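Batch manifest, entry 17 of 40.
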Amino acid sequence: MGETRVDLHHLLEDLRDAYPGSTEETILTEIVANALDSGAAQIAITTDATAPALTIVDDGAGMRRRDLARYHDIASTTKVRGAGIGFAGIGIKIALLVCAEVVTETRRSKGHVASAWRLASRQKAPWRWIPPPGLVAGHGTAVRLTPTNPLSPLLDPGFIEGTLRRNFQPLLDPALGEILGAHYPRGFAVVLNGRALERMTWRARDAATVAIRVARKRKPVGAGYLIRDAAPLPEELRGVAVSTFGKVIKRGWDWLGVAPSAPERLGGLIDVTALAECLTLNKAVYIRAGHRGAIYLAYRKAIQEAVSRQLAVWGDTGEPAERTRRRAARPVERDLEVVLADLAGEFPLLATLVEQRAGGQRRLPVASGGPAGGDHTAPLLAVREPALATDERPAVAGAQPPPPAVPSAAATEPSTPRTPPPPPATGHLAAGPRSRRPARYGLSIQFEARPDDPELGRLVESTVWVNEAHPAYRRAVASRSEGYHVALAVAMALAPLAVDPAKEHAFITAFLARWGAAIERPKRSRRK
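Output type: structure tokens
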């Protein structure tokens, strides 16, 4: 009878590589995230370069003895996905790679226990019960790390403060205190070496609050603000940052698929706690496949609309750059309007890509160009824009910009088709002439060259990128059957989102059948 053994050191290295940041940043953010999930209102961090040691103490709920025993098992957790930032039970385990010892002390009610843990070999990580060192005064949990490297960044107060401000910016921003107050009623404070981290407000020339709303929900599902400054912002603050329970997950413009005219001068911070259900293991990206992927796409679309409205008010909607469109994509895109709308009834997870709204949709100008190998977002997304002033002349030099508008429930109500609203009473937008081209659906088709990828295409956010370097695509071009190849690539790219892996073949068959029948439908007449 054999025994399955685990190379624990190799497993921990694989888990560490799943996180985008450094090992020290991952350890620090995971410990703070665990403290937040336990309901902590204050986190005290102490560094001691002479020991060397890093001690993090929180005043959360603490753990029972049996919970602390399970805490030493890899990927063992008592958390529920969507109820907080953490859910996988990995976090602190990565510290075994860079620490000679990890001491954990926890106190809950009458239970007061502590343990010492270390990585003894590639296959063994023994731990033992020890007398509590007295790090926790009341209730809560304390972690004391002993780095093997005396020059570890974990002992640098500057590194710790920068990491916390970058990853937990919403919790240290007074502007979002009211938004996150429902989740952290006791507040949140960080004390680093006896000094409380100061709460910092994002100062800028213009600021506007943003409310995120989705269909069939009366209350906003998220909120935040956008800022616009006269000077370029620091590199790490540019773009819109989306957070979950106060933990920043994504930042920039690429993930949102929006490209303002001056992206270096614009930033923002939006918290959507409902996206906790869609977090991946490393908490740096959201799941974009299956049921959770459909949830993420729906909330992302709502964020796009809210941000686009405010950019339109500020006159910072960028003009579409040059885009390369293949001849075969145009008839396929026309047919997809009908095909995907029909399939959404049979495959509900497609509704986030094809949902039509009263009043029509508008094409949002965004940056173009295929991804050079990374996972970039679509350069063209169908997003409903707000109605703008009919006078499209540039703003007069020296004129005051209009005050930022706060999105409200009324702003999300659809307007009557073909009936433009009256122009705003305050000035003109500081933007040049804009073209208003109607978009038919939320999915677009773009092309990229990926010679080493065997897939015909891939779904990135709400764009299907067709691999034009694939031998099958070159064969289709030579035989003048690009349309069928593109339709097949779209079907294969959408299948993982629409259905379970076992039903992908049925989805592709249904898709091609609807696509083939779309040519027999009469074309709708267009009004000038």
